[in-house]
């Protein structure tokens, strides 16, 4: 049973690290602000969630697990909200998204 918990926890940590790495690459490779925050926001939430879940498996039943769970819940609430607020403020200040052919979108009303 102990081996199964270690394998599941290690797998979650590995997948979480992979998602965080993919998000970092997305910040460099994606073409404009909106696609970058979309890629970073999703992989940040999922990557950190998987890492925290893996740490919960490794910690076992303890106060550390409860603290990690509270951090995970806080992250799930704040990360998408912050990404949305950032995109909304960029749109309100006039930063236009790029279209598929490389042109900027028309002005928003």
Please characterize this protein's 3D structure.
The chain is 78% helix and 0% strand. The protein is an all-alpha fold and 109 residues long. The protein has one domain (2-92). The chain is elongated, with a radius of gyration of 18 Å. The mean pLDDT is 89.
How are the secondary structure elements laid out?
Elements: H1 2-29, H2 33-59, H3 63-92
Helix pairs in contact: 1-2, 2-3
What is the arithmetic mean of pLDDT? 89
Number of discrete helical segments: 3
Total number of distinct structural domains: 1
Shape: elongated
Which regions have little confidence, pLDDT < 50, spanning 5+ residues? none
> Using DSSP, what is the number of strands?
0
Note the gap between the termini.
60 Å
Structural class: mainly alpha
- Strand residues, percent: under 5%
Question: Could you estimate the helical fraction of the residues in percent?
Answer: over 70%
Rg on CA atoms, Å? 18 Å
Q: Largest sheet, if any? A: none
Order of helical and strand elements: HHH
């Amino acid at each position: 049973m102990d081996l199964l918990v270690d394998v599941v926890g290690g797998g979650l940590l590995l997948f979480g690290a992979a998602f965080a790495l993919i998000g970092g690459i997305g910040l460099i490779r994606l073409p404009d602000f909106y696609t970058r925050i979309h890629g970073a926001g999703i992989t940040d939430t999922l990557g950190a969630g998987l890492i925290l879940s893996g740490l919960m498996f490794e910690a076992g039943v303890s106060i550390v697990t409860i603290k990690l769970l509270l951090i995970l819940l806080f992250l799930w609430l704040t990360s998408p909200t912050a990404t949305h607020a950032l995109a909304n403020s960029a749109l309100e200040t006039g930063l236009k998204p790029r279209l598929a052919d490389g042109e900027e979108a028309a002005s928003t009303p």
